[in-house]
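Renewal narrative, Specific Aim 1. Our central claim is that a sequence can be written position by position from structural information alone. The example that follows is taken directly from our test logs and has not been curated for this report. It begins with the structure tokens describing the chain, in the order in which they were read.
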């Protein structure tokens, strides 16, 4: 109807994580410890709230959950409706706390770290593909990735990811996730040079963390500006179009 239901100037727009009905779920900076709250927009008062480490990372998920990654390695999943923790998993402590990006399937949460590692000599520079992947922004990821059972909270797998790019808008019903980027190197055989860019791709089985397809970037990159993943869950088939390459594969209902 356009009716004003609340006017609360102490809620920072930059701290809004998501909405829940007419309520807002916000993150407020309190110094070393932040506060996560669900704010009733009629009264301006919190329905629930909890403390959260200032250097931790939190993201809303589908199905109205909050996924948290704490610096000490705790991964928590909460109900947005109540703030109640429904999943708690422990992984290794983060050496340098940083952001993470979330991919969801019907059976797993997949968390990609975005913490930059120590620079390596002659490291290639990577960037996003020239076009948004499947219409979504691309995010640089690097370091540990984790697969978590979204029903039990069990840690299913962890793998280390080389610097890559992840697009959040990928088919969630398929049991794989694609990482792809444009890679440029300034050196060939130790000499300064400007070789043609490469387009490395890596496809992970979200059920096991196993790499089911990887290229080192030697793909003909003339028309590599995006990729497209499609599949038929009922037929257990999928395909990835990457530049001029079309990759088909079958998968069973089990890892």
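The sequence written for that structure reads:
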């Amino acid at each position: 109807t356009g009716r004003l239901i609340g006017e609360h100037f102490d809620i920072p727009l930059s701290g809004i994580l998501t909405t829940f009905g007419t309520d807002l779920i916000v993150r407020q900076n309190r110094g070393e410890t932040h506060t996560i709250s669900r704010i009733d927009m009629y009264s301006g008062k919190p329905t629930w709230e909890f403390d959260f480490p200032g250097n931790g990372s939190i993201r809303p998920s589908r199905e109205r959950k909050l996924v948290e990654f704490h610096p000490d390695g705790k991964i928590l999943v909460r109900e947005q409706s109540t703030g109640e923790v429904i999943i708690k998993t422990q992984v290794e402590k983060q050496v340098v706390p940083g952001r993470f990006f979330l991919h969801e399937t019907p059976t797993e949460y997949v968390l990609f770290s975005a913490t930059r590692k120590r620079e390596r000599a002659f490291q290639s520079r990577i960037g996003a593909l020239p076009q948004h992947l499947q219409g979504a922004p691309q995010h640089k990821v690097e370091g540990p990735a984790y697969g978590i059972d979204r029903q039990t909270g069990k840690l299913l797998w962890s793998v280390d990811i080389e610097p890559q790019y992840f697009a959040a808008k990928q088919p969630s019903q398929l049991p794989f996730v694609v990482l792809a980027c444009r890679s440029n190197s300034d050196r060939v055989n130790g000499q300064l040079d400007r070789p043609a860019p490469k387009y490395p791709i890596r496809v992970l089985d979200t059920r096991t963390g196993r790499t089911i397809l990887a290229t080192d970037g030697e793909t003909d990159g003339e028309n590599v500006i995006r990729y497209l993943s499609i599949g038929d869950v009922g037929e257990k088939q999928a395909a990835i179009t990457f530049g001029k390459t079309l990759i088909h594969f079958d998968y069973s209902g089990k890892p």
